[in-house]
Amino acid sequence: MKPLQLLPFITPVCSYKDNHTTGGVKVIIDTDFNTIGDDGQVLAMAAQMHASQDIHLLGLTIVTGNQWLHQEVSDCLKAVERVGLEKQVGVYVGAETPLLHDFSSFQLEQILFGNATAYVGAYLSAPKPLVPPPDGFATNTVPREQHAIDFIIESVHRYPGEVTLLAIGPLTNIALAIRKDPAIVPIIKQIVIMGGQIYAPGNSYIGAGETNWWFDPEATRIVLRANVCRKIVPLDVTNTVVMTEELYDTIADYEPATPITKLFAGIERWSYVYDTVALASLYDQSLDLDVRDLYVDVNSDFKATYGKSLVWNTNPYPGIDVYSASSVVFKVDNDRFFDLYVDLLTRPVPVVLGTTARNASREQSV
């Protein structure tokens, strides 16, 4: 038997630019997609960044979280058509269930610890028949044949040191990719994670943990213990980036209307825009006003605090190769964030590749 090759545990050197990325940083968005909630807004914004060559969007990998996998895939296929990227950006089907915390485990959780009092995503019910977005199902787009896990692995090897993973759902796909091919760990440029709660209260199940990490704590632990450059955008910061009715109206009433603003007009109005903060932090590091290096893990014991973040200021076990520091964002420039948010969500769609927003608007009006 060929011996297992162990990778040396060397603290990753993470370099971050002070302003928005240039030259098109390569990004894979790993998402529990929804049509025009925060995940859908991330795609609409990222499509504009891709069109202006500020990022190079390699693909979207889908994981069960907000909804069941096949509903998310269906919604995402329509979304890439809506923004005009169906030929350039593939949709890759990923993990249908968490590593251990499947629907039956959630049902047991409720028996042991009580009924849910907060958000549970897909676990609100068993899988149901597909429901079309307001503007209908995708008409000419299907998922790519390659599995999401293999797409992540192949992309990281194809572009060593260049691929950033934007993780805005449960971390199942990324954990499985790391488990399948640990050699990707030192050549991932960065993982930007919307998830966790450091000192803030949770927002899932009975309020102990943050939704993405509670949904698959075992996968979260694998990613947090991987020796990779990591930026965490937790509830501690997203809870301070608050949408107002005025901001909602600015986008919903924007003229000329676009397919995105029309969808936005019918959105359920939440106070927070979780995943979009993580995208903005990836795109423009200067938005981050308070970033701290912390050692972060997650509680994977099956009890009432399942999925709750664990945090230390210093390495709790410096003698063994378990933890490396994560950069944790606690504050962003809200005014500049919302300027970017409104700008990107009101630009013309479908996007026109290789043009600025002003040029795209002019070309589409001809």
Automatic annotation (TrEMBL):
Keywords: Glycosidase, Hydrolase. One of its GO terms (molecular function) is purine nucleosidase activity. One of its GO terms (cellular component) is cytosol. The keyword Hydrolase applies. GO terms for biological process: purine nucleoside catabolic process. Pfam families: IU_nuc_hydro (PF01156). The keyword tRNA-binding does not apply. Residues 27-339 form the Inosine/uridine-preferring nucleoside hydrolase domain. Belongs to the IUNH family. This is Inosine/uridine-preferring nucleoside hydrolase domain-containing protein. The lineage of its organism: Eukaryota, Fungi, Dikarya, Ascomycota, Pezizomycotina.
